């Protein structure tokens, strides 16, 4: 099998590039997993702010505001000294300075809104004051209602702080505590690996076999054209499957064999990545047919793979992308891969409509694959007619 062995030699010569992209792929996946783990811990926790409290009013209500803030934050009383306040913020000794002006106690429960009475100062670019301001507004609004109903200021404050906080029960809709499974990030970055590695290796093989000397040798050999094409197809299929299997093996050992195999929708994850592998092979075939020089393969594959990855939700989640970018991304197969991957990472049990979406997204990827093959055949036919 002359063609088969020739293809293997070319692919073997590019083994360094393949290993490099596997390392990049694994590194990015691990980094995203660690980042996700940190976010899942902090996203649902309130933060205690460091606050300097300047009370120029010395009223009953300003005292209650201090008590309330001190319960939820780290509050330190400060003198009404402008230079001291500026120094505190400049050296980041406190997150913010809250100043209660004179007359606050007489106006606070008559008119809403802290912005008219309370001065909150903090470093430029910080937004923690919004959180604190909302807390103060909530307390004052509640106290105002009690006072208007005939309660004393003291009793109004006691009733306000005695209100029980609402309890939130998280419904685990995806079997992973409300978060995404760790290995979903590896599947998310798989299209970049598949397109980059497969297109580079397969593209170079196709370009090499289009050289005049090689074409003449193959035409004069005893191997028929049909046999040559079958051998090429066999090599490319084996190479694509190896890349796909290696990715699964990495995920298998990185995220725990039991966790990986028993995870919800794991079969659909694997099927989706397999269809993506087929699509990547057809993209490689298309690039190999349009490129004439070997050195041009990398120059085309690198920006193409990066561009597709950015537009289609590989490097940036689809939920973050703008509507215009999404509209463009829908014309690319990777978009439908990522759309399906996001759904699989969100739900452990799929409804009938969601299963229909699974079939639709897989079919769209395969249709793109057919389109790339058709485009490559058109280019081949056009060049033959030119000759």
Topology:
Elements: H1 2-13, H2 15-42, E1 50-55, H3 60-72, E2 74-77, H4 82-90, E3 96-100, H5 104-107, E4 119-122, H6 128-148, H7 153-161, H8 183-208, H9 212-220, H10 225-254, H11 257-262, H12 266-290, H13 295-312, H14 323-329, H15 333-346, H16 352-386
Parallel strand pairs: 1-2, 1-3
Antiparallel strand pairs: 3-4
Descriptive overview:
This protein has 387 residues and is mainly alpha-helical. The chain folds into 2 domains: 2-37 and 182-386, no CATH class; 50-161, abc type-2 transporter like domain (abc type-2 transporter like fold). 69% of the residues lie in helices and 5% in strands. It contains 16 helices and 4 strands. The chain has helices spanning 2-13, 15-42, 60-72, 82-90, 104-107, 128-148, 153-161, 183-208, 212-220, 225-254, 257-262, 266-290, 295-312, 323-329, 333-346, 352-386, and strands at residues 50-55, 74-77, 96-100, 119-122. It has a 4-stranded mixed sheet, sandwiched between helices. Strand 1, helix 3 and strand 2 (74-77) form a beta-alpha-beta unit. The chain is elongated, with a radius of gyration of 31 Å. It starts with a helix and ends with a helix.
């Amino acid at each position: 099998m002359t063609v088969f062995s020739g293809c293997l030699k070319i692919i073997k010569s590019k083994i360094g590039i393949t290993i490099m992209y596997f390392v990049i792929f694994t590194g990015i996946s691990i980094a995203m997993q660690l980042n996700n783990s940190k976010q899942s811990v902090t996203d649902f926790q309130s933060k205690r702010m460091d606050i300097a409290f300047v009370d120029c009013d010395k009223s009953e209500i300003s005292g209650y505001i201090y008590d309330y803030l001190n319960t939820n934050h780290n509050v330190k009383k400060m003198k009404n000294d402008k230079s001291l306040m500026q120094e505190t913020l400049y050296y980041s000794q406190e997150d913010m300075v809250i100043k209660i002006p004179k007359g606050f106690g007489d106006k606070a429960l008559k008119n809403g809104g802290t912005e008219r009475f309370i001065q909150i100062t903090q470093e430029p670019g910080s937004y923690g004051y919004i959180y604190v301001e909302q807390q103060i507004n909530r307390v004052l609004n509640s106290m105002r209602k009690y006072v208007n109903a005939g309660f004393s200021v003291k009793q109004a404050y006691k009733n306000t702080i005695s209100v029980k906080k609402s309890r939130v029960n998280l419904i685990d809709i995806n079997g992973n505590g409300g978060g995404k499974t760790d290995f979903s990030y590896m599947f998310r970055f798989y299209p970049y690996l598949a397109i980059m590695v497969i297109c580079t290796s397969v593209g170079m093989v196709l370009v090499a076999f289009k050289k005049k000397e090689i074409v003449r040798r193959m035409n004069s050999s005893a191997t028929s054209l049909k046999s040559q094409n079958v051998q090429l197809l066999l090599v490319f299929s084996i190479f694509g499957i190896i890349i796909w299997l290696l990715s699964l093996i990495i995920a298998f050992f990185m995220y725990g064999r039991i966790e990986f195999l028993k995870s919800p929708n794991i079969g659909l994850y694997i099927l989706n990545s397999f269809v993506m592998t087929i699509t990547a092979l057809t993209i490689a075939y298309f690039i190999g047919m349009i490129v004439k020089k070997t050195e041009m393969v990398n120059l085309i594959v690198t920006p193409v793979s990066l561009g597709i990855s950015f537009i289609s939700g590989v490097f940036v989640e689809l939920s973050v992308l703008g509507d215009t970018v999404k509209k463009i991304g829908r014309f690319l197969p990777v978009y439908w891969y990522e759309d399906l991957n996001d759904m699989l990472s969100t739900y452990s049990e799929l409804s009938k409509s969601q299963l229909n979406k699974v079939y639709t997204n897989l079919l769209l990827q395969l249709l793109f694959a057919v389109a790339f093959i058709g485009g490559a055949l058109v280019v081949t036919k056009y060049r033959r007619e030119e000759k």
